[in-house]
Prior knowledge:
Oligomer: heterodimer
Strand content of chain A: 15-25%
Strand order of the largest sheet of chain B: 6-7-8-3-9-10
Shape of chain A: elongated
Mean pLDDT of chain A: 90
Order of helices and strands of chain A: HHHEEHEEEEEEEHEEHEHHHHHHH
Largest sheet of chain B: 6 strands, mixed
Number of strands of chain A: 12
Strand content of chain B: 15-25%
Low-confidence stretches of chain A: none
Structural class of chain B: alpha/beta
Largest sheet of chain A: 10 strands, mixed
Distance between the termini of chain A: 28 Å
CATH class of the domain at 14-21 and 67-92 and 112-258 in chain B: Alpha Beta
Radius of gyration of chain B: 18 Å
Mean pLDDT of chain B: 86
Order of helices and strands of chain B: HHEEEHEEHEHHHEHEEE
Bound molecules: adenosine-5'-diphosphate, magnesium ion
Distance between the termini of chain B: 27 Å
Number of helices of chain B: 8
Low-confidence stretches of chain B: 1-14, 17-36
Helix content of chain B: 25-40%
CATH superfamily of the domain at 14-21 and 67-92 and 112-258 in chain B: P-loop containing nucleotide triphosphate hydrolases
Number of strands of chain B: 10
Radius of gyration of chain A: 29 Å
CATH architecture of the domain at 14-21 and 67-92 and 112-258 in chain B: 3-Layer(aba) Sandwich
CATH topology of the domain at 14-21 and 67-92 and 112-258 in chain B: Rossmann fold
Amino acid sequence: MFWNIALRTLLSDRGKLLAGLVGVIFSVVLVNIQGGLFFGLLHKASLLVDHSNADIWVGHRGMHNVDFPHHIPEHWIHRVRSIPGVAQAEPMRIYFSEMSLPNGDFEGVMVVGLKEGASLGRAYKITEGPEDGLSYTDGVVVDQCDDQKLSYPEIGETREIGGRRVQIAAKCYGILSFLVTPYVFTTYDRAVDIADGDPSMASYFLIRVAPGIDRESVCEEIRRRLGDVTAMTSEDYAATSVKFWMTRTGIGLSFGAATALGLLVGLVMVGQTLYAMVLDRISEFATLKAMGSTEREIVLLLTAQSALVAVVGICIGLVLTFVIQAILSTPRAAIDIPVFLYFTSAALVLSICLFASTLPYLRVRSVDPHSVLQG
Amino acid sequence: MPANQTTGMPQAMPYFQAVASNSMNRKSNADIAGEEDHRVLLATNICKSYSIGGEPRRVLDDVDFHTYAGEMVFLCGPSGSGKSTLLSILGCLLECDSGEVWIDNRRVDQLSVSERTNVRRRNIGFVFQRFQLIRGLNAEDNVAVPLTLQGVSLNDARERSGELLSRVGLGLHRKQQPNAMSPGQCQRVALARAVITAPRLLLADEPTAALDGKSGNEVMELLAELVADTGSATVVVTHDPRILGYADRVCEIENGQFK
Ligand SMILES: Nc1ncnc2c1ncn2[C@@H]1O[C@H](COP(=O)(O)OP(=O)(O)O)[C@@H](O)[C@H]1O
Ligand SMILES: [Mg+2]
């Protein structure tokens, strides 16, 4: 009967029910989309590493962010290659530079230089133009998602980076940096040329280990033999790069604050709805009490009501989240919602709703049937 | 028609059969008059003060009261004379400052809150001036609530409530929402809800005050019939002189004391 009362009285207050549902849906969608944007953004901090196909990244001692390398002598790679368990090692270069735009403006870019034909570090997949674009004279690969920033470069178009001629040979899709700076992929040698760097230096060595070899012990050995380098597994370097932006920018705090604010609004809406419903029915609760409902049953009734509102709202909210994610998620503003976030947000909103029902409960608790039922 | 038709054992209606065993003493007033054992309700030396603006104001001053099973007693008196207060004390909704309240030979005024709740659930039916039906529940479910509070399953409760609604002339309105019914119909639903458990004690506070004369009379007529069926000791608070004819006994209260 209590479910019956809970459900039917809820349904008979359609307007308020709707307001409560909107509150819950709002909270769920907000938490998931905010969280998704947050994780999507963070993910960009490690895209190069995630898609590098390497087991181990070696860079200057203290390397902390894939986009900001400190260069190391390229010839050290021979010492790395001689370490047992290292199956393959390739150097990679990353430089900041500027691309000139047709209207005379400049756009900062991150030039990523890879050994031709190397399978390591090639984070991109060609989606437009020839597969072997980099073997073209002055060839570079840019990302379609950066089209707007780079003033819509055409395939075959000639541009200048760092004062050197380059040709847009091909385009990839979805490899973006955490910064606003677009990645421009080119060959290892051309990169140093374009950026006017030191040809004896490399930014990183990317390593694949032989099957069955423990990557940690290889890292250990590399550090031991080269001294002045840091060697990390790809997962560790991805996490380190993410952590760099997390701690240096405080985006965790700002996203978290926005999300908490959204939850708060949801909480207030749900609490206010339940409270308004109860206020409206205070004499009915008094009647139930007069007829011999126990405190426990009243608590159960209110809890059941907020749980109902919460569960229905959460379900609708999650569906809405899927829809919004499907429609709005792009590589530039990726909405990456980890599975745990769905569950966490649902649990969080449910507990908030249950918490919100204590307010109306306190009101009902203080009801004295004698005074309410008079006249 | 006054409710003095309780001659001999009333016919137990089917919806009361399940609870017939806990209301054995359904004798007529004539039979039980003078037999103290059959007083369902006994209140002695009841005093009650409210503090209004920090000053205590005595509302009930050493009141004695009792009712027998099947008896319908009216509490009359001017507004503010303490009728509702007395009714709430009798109905275990309010604690008195001093005095004793006994229901079915059990002292109830000193019980804990949860025990008093239990007494109300088991033994007392309430009728209110403003019906106090639960919006959103149809007539049948509203009437079924007290049964389910006693642990009857929802289906059984609905069945019995449906039968009782037919009995009070609302068989066709079972599935209707309270807000789709006239005040007279609502009060009949409320009456059905109050008696569905065949309570030992039935308390009604101004049950006709929100009704026009005609439906007021119908409601009182019905109340009298139902009380005859259930044998509940019944206390009706009213200041409506038109319905005094239904009383077995009228107690007049003024300034917190019986005249
Ligand atoms: N909860 C309360 N707090 C303070 N005063 C009250 C309360 N309930 C009733 N009273 C006062 O007690 C007096 C008797 O009230 P009541 O029992 O409702 O009388 P009646 O039902 O006969 O009109 C009134 O003066 C009323 O104002
Ligand atoms: Mg009154």
